[in-house]
Amino acid sequence: MMHQTTKIHRTAGELAAFLGCELRGNAGTKIAGVASPERATSEDVIYLESPRHFERVLKSRAQCLICPSGAGVAGKALLISAEPKIAFARAAGWLIPPGPIVDGIHATAVIAASASVAGGVSIGPYAVVEEHASIGAGTQIGAFCFIGRGATVGESCRLHPRVTLYEHVTLGSRVIMHSGAVLGADGFGYATDREGKHWKFPQLGALEIGDDVEIGANTTIDRGSLDVTVIEAQVKLDNLVHVAHNVKIGRRTLIAAQTGIAGSSVIGNDVVIGGQVGIGDHCRLEDRCVAGAQAGIPSGKVIRRDQTVWGTPARSIERFKKQYGWFARLPEIAERLRRLEQPKPESL
Amino acid sequence: MMHQTTKIHRTAGELAAFLGCELRGNAGTKIAGVASPERATSEDVIYLESPRHFERVLKSRAQCLICPSGAGVAGKALLISAEPKIAFARAAGWLIPPGPIVDGIHATAVIAASASVAGGVSIGPYAVVEEHASIGAGTQIGAFCFIGRGATVGESCRLHPRVTLYEHVTLGSRVIMHSGAVLGADGFGYATDREGKHWKFPQLGALEIGDDVEIGANTTIDRGSLDVTVIEAQVKLDNLVHVAHNVKIGRRTLIAAQTGIAGSSVIGNDVVIGGQVGIGDHCRLEDRCVAGAQAGIPSGKVIRRDQTVWGTPARSIERFKKQYGWFARLPEIAERLRRLEQPKPESL
Amino acid sequence: MMHQTTKIHRTAGELAAFLGCELRGNAGTKIAGVASPERATSEDVIYLESPRHFERVLKSRAQCLICPSGAGVAGKALLISAEPKIAFARAAGWLIPPGPIVDGIHATAVIAASASVAGGVSIGPYAVVEEHASIGAGTQIGAFCFIGRGATVGESCRLHPRVTLYEHVTLGSRVIMHSGAVLGADGFGYATDREGKHWKFPQLGALEIGDDVEIGANTTIDRGSLDVTVIEAQVKLDNLVHVAHNVKIGRRTLIAAQTGIAGSSVIGNDVVIGGQVGIGDHCRLEDRCVAGAQAGIPSGKVIRRDQTVWGTPARSIERFKKQYGWFARLPEIAERLRRLEQPKPESL
Q: Which residues of chain A make contact with C96, given a CB cutoff of 8 A?
């Protein structure tokens, strides 16, 4: 079921060396892929993170297991790790390196004479690279990608088919972009006069994407208006996310699908934002805060570091739970109130 | 106003035969299209489902009406149906077969030598069909479509321009995909280590789309991570819907625009999900349940079969209405409480 | 940081004449761009709208300021305007006219022989213009755009790369469309029979976009089913907005990102809709009403002119605030209720 473009045969011993793990059992156990316990063949590596999944692991045909010390599974080669899921993710990247998006530069790619294309770059059919754009070494540009005038793409990036970079957008290195993502479109800004006519406010700013960022399918990130929109290193955005003009997103922040961030909001480092969250303009989400799915953060609001918020308007999860608990008991409250209002027998 | 590529002239009698309906009135009434009562010409078929629209039908220039028995409209050819809207939809498909997305295989289509293209396939300008992909008989692939390595498209599918199938995605037959849809991108999965670094979790699973599925514009469906994302037959997804990795959606389920479903959730058969609904990861929505627009279903939640839920967090519509009714009366409750707290005159 | 394709040098005096503003100070002050106060060079124009930003303006290197009368900034050329932000937006459009999306008609554009292309039209690489389509004078069509059969694009439109117009969609003049937008896909309409089978309801209607409309990246607007979807002049839609079949949106209405409007709803003129708002089918939002971000407007609901609504289900902002204020105090209400329920000492 899994489609590996390159199947590399390794051994459990080699994987232990790569991961820097202790190995228990047969170092010569052959491995060639990764899988879930149920789908694994004898050559797949699996992992055990939580005791909850112990039974699944026991029944698996896999012969090589990444698990914490003391997991107590007999008959398999064990790679001992305090963070088995991380080790498994690293093992997967090592055993199954991502296949090429495209090989070489396709004859139909339209590349401006003034564009700079480094060594080892692949560009797919019908991709367009405009004047003065620059593509770093080892980067892959899929079919139908559009790299606008003066845009800069770093090294070893992977742009899946049909990605649009407007002019002068800059990407760091090792950025992954999925199909349909649009970077650098005009922000949504107008000045409305007394007759109600909307004048387009200048959307002339930049958009800078850091290293190791991943951007999901059909996600849109607008350029700054007079300022810069910045996505820092290691940020991961899911599908259909919207990031407006002048937003800053700090390092390693995770944002799930369909979340929208309005203009000039500043998101800190290591923030986690659930799906369908709405963040108004000029908000500040400090480092390591968490916004639960569908939360709504009103314009100008500050969420303090390490705080977890839920609901619309967003408040701390503790307050949300207390308030919501009573909300669910409103019919009961109303009934208790009604009883209190009835004249007491003894007052008759 | 309606743009029919092929105008076919038929009669009311021929339509009655096609639909298997009783005909009352002139079987020779000429028909050539379908319309709303107001926009109909004398050659358009219209329908009457609810008595509410009786006046509109009476005033219409249409000479051929699909209606329930006993609708009592004189002077028109009547096609008697217990389900007039269904009969009308079928009549439309028969009178106005969908026009071709593209005719023939365009000279600019880039089709890998190892791809398999069946008879009667049309492929538009600048479409790309990668190695080992397979296109079933009678399928139409619009301009700028990208059919990834090893992807399989069934028979008589209609892919509008600019659809992306990542490698190894499989579509059943008669699937309709609208422009901008992205199938098979990587799911949003990372393992975060103690330093906060996000390691990309393998996204190597499959994506399988059943027969007769329709997928709206700019909708995204991710491949499985170690498992399979499955959309079963006759599922209909509106625009800008997000379906995460490992999700299963059962037969005939309908999902309105901008709804998002997080990883590993399982949606049953004949489920109806409104617009902008958010479904957390590992939820289970059983057969025939209904989620109202903007509902939020928390991670891990089970919605029982035939249940209708509203709100965030989602609860049964009955509870929602009761709770919300009291919510709207909170200022009144507060006032009643204040009065009770006041010392009673007789205690003075 | 700002990337102007054409740098035009002007003077403060020339700008005052263009804007019809009073000028105070040196009419010969050279200007060549616009900026925020912090990023301005001595050749950039800045503006001051609110006294809050007075300090920023004082510190700026800019030598030319648009400000209200009496702003009292010495040492700069002042352009006096009662609406400085509007004047600034107009100044930006005059100093930095939008650069070309594309120059000339690229050799790889596929243009049907029956298509009509007016003078001064530019069409980018790999764009496709289908039979009987029509492109008005001075319009620019970016790379990978798809202009379907019989579609009409007015004059001086700007279609950024990778826009899809399905067949017979009509655009007015000076329309701006951002990358990934899809106009005219089939609406989400089915008739479900007693066995649960969904029959595709005809989606044969039109889609008409007025003059001066701007449409954000990856936004989708469906064609009518038997009717017409209409977006009137000067409407501005942000990114990832969804507009369903048969919707009408009145002049100058603004709709922020990720909002969805279900079938047949009618939105008036000068309406303002926040981000992530959900509007059910057959709603009516009258002129100048406002829907706050994430509001949910149930099917069939009418919002009266000039009303502002918040929340789900949407209600007037006044009621929302009162109800929500008590919601936040529910734990307190419950506690006060508990105290009232306790037997009073004197009754003992």
A: 202, 204
